[in-house]
Structures are given as C-alpha cells and as structure tokens.
Specification:
Layout: E1 2-7, H1 12-30, E2 34-38, H2 50-58, E3 63-65, H3 77-82, E4 105-108, E5 118-124, H4 135-148, E6 153-159, H5 163-172, E7 179-183, E8 193-194, E9 200-202, H6 219-228, E10 242-251, E11 256-266
Parallel strand pairs: 1-2, 2-3, 5-6, 6-7, 7-9
Antiparallel strand pairs: 1-10, 4-5, 8-9, 10-11
The protein binds fe (ii) ion (FE2) (2 copies).
One fe (ii) ion (FE2) binds near residues 9, 40, 67 and 184.
Length: about 270
C-alpha cells in the first residue's frame, strides 16, 4: 500500500504556517509515503519564492505544484529550471522548457518505497482561464507515455476553475491515473470518491489559509473591487487559518486507489 498526502492551494503566511503544523500531525497520524502541496499562492497570495520552495522540501514534501500563479514571483523562474520537484502546468505550448521554464511532470522514488516509480503531473484547465494547449490531449500523451514505461502510480493535480471541466478530465483518466485531485478554486468540494476504475477523485481540495476571506484575500478588498469595478490592491486575509487536504491509499502494484479521506480542519 502506498499513501499520498496532498494539500490544496497554500495561501500566504497563514497558509504556510497551517501546513507546517498539519504536516507534523499527519506524519504521526497517517505516515504518508508521498507528500504534495500546491504552492501557487504561498508568497503573499502570489506565486512562491525559492526560499519557500526550500522550506517546503525541508518539511518533507516530495513534489510542489503550482498553477496560473506559477510565475508571479520573478525570482522563481530559475527554480523552475533547476528543481524538478517544483511543477508548472504541463500544457504550456513549450514542452521543451526553452520558452516556458520547468516541467509539469516528475517521476520520483519515495524514500519509504525504494525502487518504486511514482509520477506526479500538473495540468491546467482552460475554462474561465488562460487558453493554454488542451489539458486533455497533453495529459493523455504524458499518461500514455508513463504507462508505456510501466509506471502506473500516477497522481494528477488538475488546476481548474470549472467543476464541469475538472470532472470530465477526471473521468477521462479513470482507470489510468491513481488520483485526480482538483486545485485552484480555494473552496473545498465534498465529492471525494473512488471511481469504479480505481481512480481517487475530488473536484477541489480547497485552500490552506484564512477561510474568513474571499478565496484568501481580505474581504474588504474583494467587495470594493466588485462595487467599484476598479483594480484593487489585494492583501491576504489575517486571522485563524485552516487547511484543505486529502489522503489517498493505493495498491502500488496496480496503481489503483483503495481509499480517499478528505480533511478541512482549523489548526
Ligand atoms: Fe490558487
Ligand atoms: Fe490558481
């Protein structure tokens, strides 16, 4: 059995602090083999810095995913080139990484499972988002390549706005991916399930950060923007924080998911 722990979009300092506390607890309670976090909002809501990437890795994370906010911190560009465990969406037009640094796919060997290859993928939706290359076709090509190499432990973060696109994507990979978990919406959905084909799924894992906010941002900033229709300075909300996380168990010989457990807790 292999156990995955995944945290949804980590937002600002409150989100990072919540995850630091939660990781410690999960280690004791669940002893995960693979730990993943979506860190696209870790730096004050916008992107992630190299120092934060180092910090997350030092807490034991195996892979860090991002999304539309991947590039918000200019200093992170080199980290995308040099740190394969930091992913950007795979469906940018440039797979070579020459124009768009980094990769959306990484194959790791968990410390607790020597010799076992686990692939983590990140793709981004196109509904109400930037029109990247088709996430369905791009991810399909990557998944087929991995399966062709005998890698059947495949964990996909699908970063999208529309639940319809996310659910269609999930069913498309039913029976081929161990897990398809959603990020980007910042609000957790209660639809975690194991599909009959053996794929664990949830439309969105939700945010790690201050929930008394508008998707992590101070309420006043957001309300003013809607009232004025003018650009506003967005500040991360402050106050008690929580985390959205998911634990997935799978049979590592078949890559089929066995169990999925959803968490939405204050720290
Ligand atoms: Fe986000
Ligand atoms: Fe996002």
């Amino acid at each position: 059995m292999i156990r995955y722990l995944y945290f949804g979009d980590v937002f600002g300092r409150p989100g990072r602090e919540a995850v630091e506390v939660a990781v410690d607890r999960f280690r004791k309670s669940h002893n995960p083999d693979v730990m993943i976090a979506n860190v696209e909002n870790a730096a004050h809501g916008k992107g992630v810095t190299p120092r934060m990437v180092e910090e997350f890795l030092s807490w034991g994370f195996d892979v860090l995913t991002t999304g539309n906010h991947a590039w918000d911190q200019g200093e992170i560009i080199d980290t995308f080139r040099n740190e394969p465990r930091l992913l950007r969406p795979l469906n940018y037009g440039d797979k070579s990484g020459m124009y768009t640094p980094g990769s959306g796919v990484v194959v790791i060997e968990p410390k607790s499972k020597p010799g076992l290859k686990v692939a983590v993928l990140l793709a981004m939706g196109r509904v109400f988002m930037d029109p990247l290359d088709c996430p369905f076709h791009c991810t399909n090509a990557e998944v087929e390549e991995l399966l062709g190499q005998g890698i059947n432990n495949i964990f996909i973060d699908f970063h999208g706005e529309a639940s319809s696109e996310k659910q269609a994507f999930t069913y498309f990979f039913e029976g081929r991916a161990t897990a398809v978990v959603g990020s980007h919406q910042h609000v957790q959905t209660a639809d975690e399930r194991i599909l009959p084909g053996g794929t664990a799924a949830i439309t969105d894992v939700g945010m790690c950060g201050v929930w008394d906010s508008v998707i992590g941002v101070k309420k006043e900033n957001s309300i003013r923007r809607f009232l004025s229709k003018m650009p506003q300075r967005f500040e991360p909300a402050e106050g008690p924080a929580g985390y959205g996380a998911i634990v997935i168990d799978a049979d590592e010989t078949t890559g089929r998911a066995i169990k999925i457990e959803r968490f939405r807790n204050w720290v």
